[in-house]
UniProtKB/TrEMBL annotation:
InterPro entries: NAD(P)-bd_dom_sf, SDR_fam
Annotated protein name in UniProt: SDR family NAD(P)-dependent oxidoreductase
Taxonomic superkingdom: Bacteria
PANTHER family: RETINOL DEHYDROGENASE, RETINOL DEHYDROGENASE 11
Family stated for the protein in its record: Belongs to the short-chain dehydrogenases/reductases (SDR) family.
Keywords per UniProt: Oxidoreductase
Amino acid sequence: MMSHFGVTSTADEVLEGKDLTGKIIFITGGASGLGQETARAMAAKGGHVIIAARDQAKLDQAATTIKSESGSELVETILCDLASLGSVRACAQEASERFDRIDLLINNAGVMACPYAETADGFEMQFGTNHIGHFLLTNLLMPLVMNGTDPRIINLSSRGHHMDEVDHDDPNYDNREYKKWPAYGQSKTANIQFTVGLESRVAQHGIHAYALHPGGIRTNLGRHMTEDDMKWMMSRFKSEDGDGPKMKSIPEGAATTCFAATAAELAGQGGVYLEDCHVAEIDDESAQGGVRSYALDPAKAEKLWALSEKMVGESFTF
């Protein structure tokens, strides 16, 4: 399925003519970068946005900016450190007390290519933050999502998923050498497999889940990258005919999120991976685009779900 939007479309262009009045939109990583831009664009269309992050001062600053730039006062904040299951549980509890529903849950936050580190619960940082934190948060927020109108769950993945599959036997690198880029790839593949697992469970309730690659964008997600990392990343974004890097601006980077959240043509068909505002084709060869077949594999998605439940010490049925 192709839309008339593409690589250079912006969040505002995708949302043109849309009315998000009455929609409650929960965005992780909403205090900067793509999350903040998504919140701004959606608030400008009448959406009631809740931005989640781990730093209250940054949240407050972002909320002030979003209100100013969108002309909307319907901007709220909530604390959530995805690298701590305790913080995630506290956030979900607070959300259940403050809000009666969530119409759009946008799992946008992430960490990329960091040196080896562990979350508060001893998980490898990238897998623990990018996948496990969002896995628990999404499941705990599901009662609110079920109260939403035509609810959608959006999981930001990356073309980085091309770099590695999920090692379901050793997700935390206990028995293999840690390498930051494959570890990032593993976490981004997990975002897609989580989307597949979610869709199989919640579609019957009228909830649909989407994964996406926002594009190559310079945001603070890249704060751990060295100069060599940046050169390597830029080389990955060169097109096959060699006409230079295809880096996106932040407004362009937020476009696919806004498309996944609102496009009428996606209604009723979740469990897919999007890039440049269209559903990507399965492609196990190209470095320039597409989604790897292992990321959409239902059996692997089920293995990940079981592993994730074990890691958070809780199982979920809907």
